[in-house]
Design goal:
Blueprint (H helix, E strand, L loop, with lengths): L1 E2 L2 E2 L2 H12 L6 H11 L11 H13 L20 H6 L14 E5 L3 H14 L11 E8 L2 E10 L5 H7 L3 H7 L4 E8 L8 H10 L2 H4 L8 H10 L11
Antiparallel strand pairs: 1-2, 3-4, 4-5, 5-6
């Protein structure tokens, strides 16, 4: 049985059931940590594949293979927006002018910025806010201190038909090279912001640092990286044929 890019044997499923039965206090977080350690499930940077494991455990429960401990809350506190943040995400009375030369890109590392990012995405992105799977990065884009855009990147999905068809790789090639692909899970330009070429400029700035910021050996070949930065174009979506 395959979940999140890893094959689980019947004996491993049995071992997960045993780990659930012996948890001191029932905790999904503790369980995912124990499962990763027991099965040596690590990211390329050496950290536990905790988020991928959590997704795998949820899918196992959905398939009737295991019964997880009860979730302690619908959304962890780190994913909830504080009242302070909720007030800040409303459209300002004075909309800041955008000068592409003044854009700054900030990696979200502080808890306050994390709550702020969550609140903006929850209120203004059509998909709302959900925890990103696996390894992840979030960015806040500002002009003269004012937030104008937010982006989130997460681990790539195991299978996506349009992507896999466009790349043209085999199952073995996908398994080997999938860690080199990053999913742009959220890209939000705040709805009251109007600026020509803003999206392209933001993507160009992100492309210059994403590989260095990513928690793992994500390294684009230098020629491809240069092409991405030179083109600096908004994504051309590949849609599945109907």
């Amino acid at each position: 049985m395959r979940y999140c890019g890893r094959d689980f044997t019947v004996s491993e499923i049995d071992r997960i059931r045993a780990l659930i039965a012996t948890l001191p206090p029932p905790s999904r977080y503790r369980l995912s940590q124990d499962v990763c350690a027991a099965f040596a499930w690590y990211r390329p940077d050496g950290g536990l594949k905790d988020m991928s494991c959590r997704v795998a455990l949820l899918k196992m429960e959905k398939d009737g293979l295991i019964t997880l401990p009860r979730a302690r809350c619908a959304k962890p506190l780190s994913y909830q927006a504080s009242p302070e943040c909720a007030a800040l995400v409303r459209e300002p009375a004075l909309i800041p002018p955008v000068d592409l030369r003044t854009l700054t890109v900030e990696l979200v590392t502080h808890p306050h910025d994390s709550r702020l990012w969550n609140a903006y995405v929850e209120h203004h992105h059509y998909l709302g806010h959900q925890p990103l799977p696996g390894a992840q990065l979030r960015y806040i884009v500002r002009t003269r201190g004012e937030i104008i855009a937010l982006l989130g990147f997460g681990a790539a999905a195991w299978k996506t038909q349009p992507r896999d068809a466009a790349i043209g790789w085999s199952a073995e090639q996908r398994q080997r090279n999938l860690p080199l692909i990053v999913n742009n899970a959220r890209f939000l330009i705040l709805p009251w912001i109007r600026c020509k070429n803003l999206a392209s400029r933001v993507l160009a700035l992100i492309s210059r640092r994403l590989a260095d910021d990513w928690p793992g050996p994500l390294r684009l070949p230098s020629r491809i990286a240069r092409d991405l930065r030179r083109e600096a174009a908004v994504y051309r979506h590949l849609l599945p044929s109907r």
